[in-house]
């Protein structure tokens, strides 16, 4: 699925990926979906709906709650810290679900905090949640060279193992 929605049509994109009654299938083979996210506060919601729909269709359904939390954090960070659109990639291979968000900001996120969480702060918990709830996560800078880079920015990814 490739969705390229402008801010004006984000609500329509949400509707087009809204969950339907889908009989879950056993996760077979390898698959990958890419969703282009406009720079909009609605982007994390669209990303969550997309992950939910894809996992209901392909499985494994037991990863849905954690995957929604993780994609929400990654898409929210892309909206908050980058000034342009982002893209979400969801892929399945060899029992591993990978969620990655590419944005236009070359600045790496601060590593998750060590010690106690600041429960009253406005930020600082997102990547800690990603670190705690995923089986692996990292980020890499795009250099503007190569087939996949297509400009500068970064990719932040996480994985869940079934």
Automatic annotation (TrEMBL):
Record's keyword annotation contains Isomerase: no
Histidine kinase/HSP90-like ATPase domain segment(s): 47-146
GO MF assignments: protein serine/threonine kinase activity
Entry-linked InterPro entries: Anti-sigma-factor_SerPK, HATPase_C_sf, HATPase_dom
Swiss-Prot/TrEMBL keywords: Kinase, Serine/threonine-protein kinase, Transferase
Keyword Transferase: yes
PANTHER family: ANTI-SIGMA-F FACTOR RSBW, ANTI-SIGMA-F FACTOR RSBW-RELATED
Identification of the protein by name: Anti-sigma regulatory factor (Ser/Thr protein kinase)
């Amino acid at each position: 699925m490739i969705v390229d929605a402008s801010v004006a049509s984000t609500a329509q994109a949400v509707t087009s990926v809204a969950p339907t009654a889908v009989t879950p299938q056993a996760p077979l083979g390898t698959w990958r979906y890419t969703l282009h996210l406009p720079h909009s506060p609605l982007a994390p919601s669209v990303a969550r709906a997309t992950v939910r729909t894809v996992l209901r269709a392909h499985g494994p359904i037991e990863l849905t709650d954690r995957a929604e939390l993780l994609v929400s954090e990654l898409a929210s960070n892309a909206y908050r810290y980058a000034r342009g659109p982002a893209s979400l990639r969801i892929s399945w291979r060899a029992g591993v679900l990978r969620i990655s968000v590419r944005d236009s900001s070359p600045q790496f996120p601060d590593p998750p905090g060590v010690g106690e969480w600041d429960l009253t702060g406005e930020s600082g918990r997102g990547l800690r949640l990603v670190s705690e709830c995923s089986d692996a996560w990292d980020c890499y800078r795009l250099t503007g060279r190569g087939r996949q880079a297509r400009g500068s920015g970064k990719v932040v990814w996480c994985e869940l193992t079934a």
